[in-house]
Design brief:
The chain is α+β, with helices and mostly antiparallel strands. It has helices at about 5-20, 65-70, 100-110, 115-120, 130-145; strands spanning about 30-35, 40-45, 50, 55-60, 75-80, 90-100, 155-170, 180-185, 190-195. Helix 4 crosses helix 5 (about 130-145). The longest helix is centred in the N-terminal third of the chain and has 18 residues, at about 5-20.
Length: about 200
Amino acid sequence: MSLLFEAFSHFRDLQERARGAGDPEPTAMTLATANPQGRVSARTVLLKELDGRGFVFYTNFGSNKGQQILAHPQCALLFLWKTLDRQVQVKIEGIAEPVTHCEADAYFAQRPRLSQIGAWASKQSQPLADRAELMARVREFEQRFEGQDVPRPPHWSGFRVVPDMIEFWYGAEYRLHDRLRYQCVDGEWGKRALYP
């Protein structure tokens, strides 16, 4: 097993343990991006898939995060699970690349219908007068797609964060934490423990 797949396997095991321990949202991750001027933004998104290449999430490409990633694809993800016997944090750094149209279409087709409508109705990150304006747009698109499947909007798709670093942090008493970092340097993955 390659070290990258070892890290992926370790991640999946921890996420399943967090789910089993009652974590209310074990797929929640903080996504950090930067604009072209270097100003950093962070927000919570949901992991939808971990495949053999990386961590996949979906969003509106017109949103701040979508625009920032398209302009500057380096980003970071952070998972925090407090429900395990030791608090666990997993930090991922890498490059975000758009998923294929086929992948985005397949995922969009599985979403609840109202979530599909919402993807059309929301002008994500744009000014909104009030909630009534949003709900009017929801009704508009419900009528537009009445009696038919809702197609994926052209501005809505996904990104796959292809990691070049994955670090596992395990909380311990007296700040004597355990840290294990997997990192790719010049195309080769390595693994090492770090001081807390």
